[in-house]
Amino acid sequence: MMSLRWVRLGSLAALAAVTVTATAALLPTAAGAEAPPKPNAACWAAPIDGRPAQLQAGGTEGWYIWNDGDGFHLASTKPVPAGKTFTAVLMTDGKFTDVSRIRLEGADLVHTKLKGHQLIVAFRTHDGIDGVNFHVDGGQRLRFTLREGKHRIAANEIYVGAGGAHPEHNPFVLCR
Asked: What is the pTM of this model?
């Protein structure tokens, strides 16, 4: 059985260096090199399975992450109608596929970069739920950097899986 591991990425000063290094490390192997076999996209660890019970329109402010038979889901909400910007940068050594929007409007953004290895989202969330659905084809790692406004959101405002587990840190990595 696969296990869920949170991986701390270090201080903000080290984050820039980590981002450059991680980007290279998360990209597929060079042409001609033997790539590792692609695992089944649905075989992520059980603790991320199921929608967090806390996620309700206008509910507890934060980011919500889960996986189910329809793939991965990343959503944000807040309890008051005044809008707030939620942004996220996700990286994988696999590839983001089947990306679809949830209740986005206006200037909300969902964009893949780096040949599908990076997913960038920016939502102006009010008292509803904004989000994105996606699959990860292959790969062993999925890194999240989550912000609210200009600051990284506190780990206790990130809810993962049906149990609403919090990562130890933000940014964090989910491993198969």
From this structure: 0.74
